[in-house]
Amino acid sequence: DAGVIQSPRHEVTEMGQEVTLRCKPISGHDYLFWYRQTMMRGLELLIYFNNNVPIDDSGMPEDRFSAKMPNASFSTLKIQPSEPRDSAVYFCASRGGTSFYNEQFFGPGTRLTVL
Amino acid sequence: SQQGEEDPQALSIQEGENATMNCSYKTSINNLQWYRQNSGRGLVHLILIRSNEREKHSGRLRVTLDTSKKSSSLLITASRAADTASYFCATEGRGTASKLTFGTGTRLQVTL
Q: Measured between alpha carbons, how far is B31 from A101 in angstroms, rounded to an integer?
């Protein structure tokens, strides 16, 4: 398996532009997580899905952020409009199994820079 | 705010020495996990310890958990230069199945 795949790996955009980050989880995994990592705030959970349904989006910073999971093999995180403070590394992770005791598998991340 | 706080924030040791990192958390947990992050990469799972376990080993890793003190430690024995990375603890809280809260991380530097 190729692991969790994220695209793009790097994104540079100007303030006000729309940004879409993409994630393909590991096949067969039924949980998908979006995280944001910054020096100031560390690693924060933004939203997670179970069987394509959003379960907890309490970490989404504001209405400019939205996430979708139209099917089991694809998810997007969209920021519209983007702002400089959104600059961060965004990670997608997936998890499988019905046990409580399962690890999360992380993608390589998307480094977003908003100018 | 983040659940886990890690100590120390940074640690520098020589190859062959042991490295110990500590994690404290605030609420009841189902399990606690440790992850490693190499610079510019995603996180990689190292080890998971359940709330009813006190100690666990995996290769050169030893994890302890004290639920009464809400703390955990990660020991890496006989460290290698390749162990240089940031290490994060993550807790899965009771009633929050699958949702992990990450600590602030410890940056480990292993020098030759």
A: 7
